[in-house]
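Sequence, please.
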């Protein structure tokens, strides 16, 4: 069975659809699609090298993962990082992505609080962490003083902004859930240009039959020849094919479960619609 939940978003000049498996380097982050919460496992170690953290409150990477957040609509960004065991010491950096050169990114939030020996305040500095309304600090240094907690101030973000979230697990390799919230909209599509995102009707999902697992896509008459991709929430392309203008693309059955993004890419535009496949059962 299948339900549809659709939002059309167009971006220009897409770079590529290459996704790293471990996402342990600034150059190979996991790009988030769909609606949170997102669930992550944490593997031991760091990537090719320790990046960005020198001179920040975090100091070093440790059991790290890099995540990219791309802003579609202006607003506030808040989030919760929620350890699966409830008590792990997670630290994070939020960096504004200025270019594809990791050395040029601006650190805009830095969280490094954590448990210290024989400290009655430790419970304020471990477990859930993130950005939250009501907070004003943009940096929390290592340790856990009486005035420290595990949250920093929200970010005001704008359309076209790109941010990187570096998350360290200093306690172990326990996974975590990431819950995005606030008034801004985050989307998985990245762009390397500074052009304004324009709306266009490049394609439409004309059928999402809940009985037969059927998905039918109709491209527009003015659609440039391009490619169709179906991408899951891990950033993996599960299907791709060439498409032309005024074409009907039929998947019957679709044989997918969970949230996916249907993407149509041309030389000058990219359109996407999100679809939730409920699955049979």
């Amino acid at each position: 069975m299948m339900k549809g939940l659709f939002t059309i978003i167009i971006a220009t000049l897409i770079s590529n659809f290459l996704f790293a498996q471990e996402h342990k380097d600034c150059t190979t982050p996991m790009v988030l699609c769909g609606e949170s919460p997102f669930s992550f496992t944490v593997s031991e170690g760091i990537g090719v090298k320790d990046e960005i953290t020198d001179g920040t409150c975090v100091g070093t990477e440790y059991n790290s993962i890099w995540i990219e957040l791309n802003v579609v609509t202006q607003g506030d960004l808040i989030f919760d990082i929620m350890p699966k065991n409830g008590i792990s010491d997670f630290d994070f950096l939020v960096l504004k992505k200025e270019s594809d050169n990791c050395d040029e990114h601006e650190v805009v939030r830095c969280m490094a609080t954590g448990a210290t020996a024989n400290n009655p305040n430790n419970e304020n500095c471990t477990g859930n962490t993130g950005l939250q309304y009501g907070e004003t600090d943009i940096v929390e240094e290592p340790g856990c003083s009486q005035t420290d907690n595990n949250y920093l101030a929200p970010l005001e973000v704008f359309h076209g902004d790109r941010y990187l979230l570096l998350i360290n697990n200093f306690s172990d390799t326990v996974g975590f859930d990431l819950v995005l919230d606030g008034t801004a909209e985050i989307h998985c599509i990245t762009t390397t240009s500074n052009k304004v995102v324009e709306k266009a009707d490049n394609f439409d999902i004309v059928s999402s039959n809940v009985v037969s697992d059927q998905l039918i896509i109709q491209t527009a008459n003015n659609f440039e020849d391009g490619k169709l991709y179906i991408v899951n929430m891990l950033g993996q392309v599960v299907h791709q094919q060439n498409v032309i203008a005024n074409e009907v693309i039929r998947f019957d059955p679709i044989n997918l479960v969970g949230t996916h993004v249907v993407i149509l890419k041309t030389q000058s535009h990219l359109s996407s619609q999100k679809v939730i496949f409920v699955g049979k059962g």
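The radius of gyration is 20 Å.
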